[in-house]
Amino acid sequence: MPGSSPIQAVQPDPKPNNRRRRLLFFLAPPLLAVAVALLLGASTNPLPRHFLRRILGSKPSVLRPEAPRPVNGTSRDAGRPPCVLWMAPFASGGGYCSEAWSYVAALDAHAAAGAGNNFTLSIAHHGDLESPEFWIGLPEPSKDLAYRLAAARCELSRAVVICHSEPGAWYPPMYEALPCPPTGYRDPAFVIGRTMFETDHVSPEHVRRCNQMDAVWVPTDFHVSTFVKSGVDRAKVVKVVQAVDVEFFDPAKHVALPLPIGVPVMVPEGSTLEHGDSKGRNFVFLSVFKWEQRKGWDVLLRAFLQEFSGADDVVLYLLISAYHSDTNFIGQIHRFVKETGIKEPVDGWAEIRVINEHVPQSALPSLYKAADAFVLPTRGEGWGRPVVEAMAMALPVIVTNWSGPTEYLTEENGYPLDMDRLTDVTDGPFKGHLCAEPSADHLRALMRHVVVDREEARSKGKKAREDMMERFSPEIVARIVADKIQQALVNTGLTED
């Protein structure tokens, strides 16, 4: 589930530390001043606002309130088109980051194609901490886009601000982060919260925060229902689906990553697998997830280890990232198998490999291309970014048929996984919420089925890519987003219909 901390007022730190002093040096040139904001925005010790005022002088900034506009219309921004300030964890990695990139890239391409956007686009980092590994692994065109959009001028009084994150990061933030909107809700012309939730309802504090927004964009019908049921104003809740980059995630453009890679799990001492030696398996399952219970890794391991053995020519690759956990994933897997009493088959364990190195964004399509099927027995998804990436790569997917994936997963384009029941979240800030408990028995059957009937699996993978292209391509979603922004501009009087 999204992280959360007790509500607290964030007090400015009157003395910036040495790291911030070094960053101040680079804020002098106007271009770099805004570009560096991408990385400063997620700092756990953000720059005090009075330092920003001192650095930026009288220049209007998205990081502080602008000076009042002259009544005679002589503002230097008079006559400029309104702008959209998109604030999101652009340098963090993860779901919100990937989604935000898909939107801004689609909108930028939409404008470049002469589609007639009547607003400018600017971005700023907001929400999660930045990840240097993620940023380094971005394709160069994405970095160039980030620098350009981060440098774009945006006057708050003529801005639609989009706060693309979990509501705890919105103004005032529940933890130390650059707030969105930067100066509160009075300065921007219109404020949109883009968010989602993975359980059956939204917490009261998040409902309150959603109702402060002028509009709340959610990705699926599932979220429209759960947000409204929880108390978010129905008039504010709008479904805006997510885009997947079907040009980047295109199997025809990539070569499969050579296998094997990663570290083998559940291998006997002295086995050749222990030293990384492995023949290429005839069928490759892939799962991509954060190491948290919500992702259903326990269900996946139980189903795979009970359904397959060393006699089956299959392998399960796990691309895992830490989430409030240590990175000893192999040790945790061993502990799980021991504590749950899963018995080793007569023919030995089926092969599991943990990919223990960072896979840059630019290499992800090659990893998907190396797989035969994607599997994720999740207990709840806001959208399911790796799922739609796998579908765009024409992979058959086995995914729990609840929450976010219900927006795009069908019997024709994948293998919807049954859930046994809705179950309580037992700990953390969302204790008492309900989420799905995926069926381990049905998962075993589906995984065996795709191994046996590969022609059907390939056919569903082909349909999956077709659906991604027809319903969720950047061009299609850009039109949807541009139309919603246009409605906001009309509602605020910043432009005519």
From TrEMBL:
Keyword Membrane: yes
Bilayer-spanning residue ranges: 23-42
Keyword Transmembrane helix: yes
Signal peptide residue numbers: none
GO terms assigned for molecular function: glycosyltransferase activity
Keywords: Membrane, Transmembrane, Transmembrane helix
Protein name: Glycosyl transferase family 1 domain-containing protein
Protein's organism: Urochloa decumbens
Higher taxonomy: Eukaryota, Viridiplantae, Streptophyta, Embryophyta, Tracheophyta
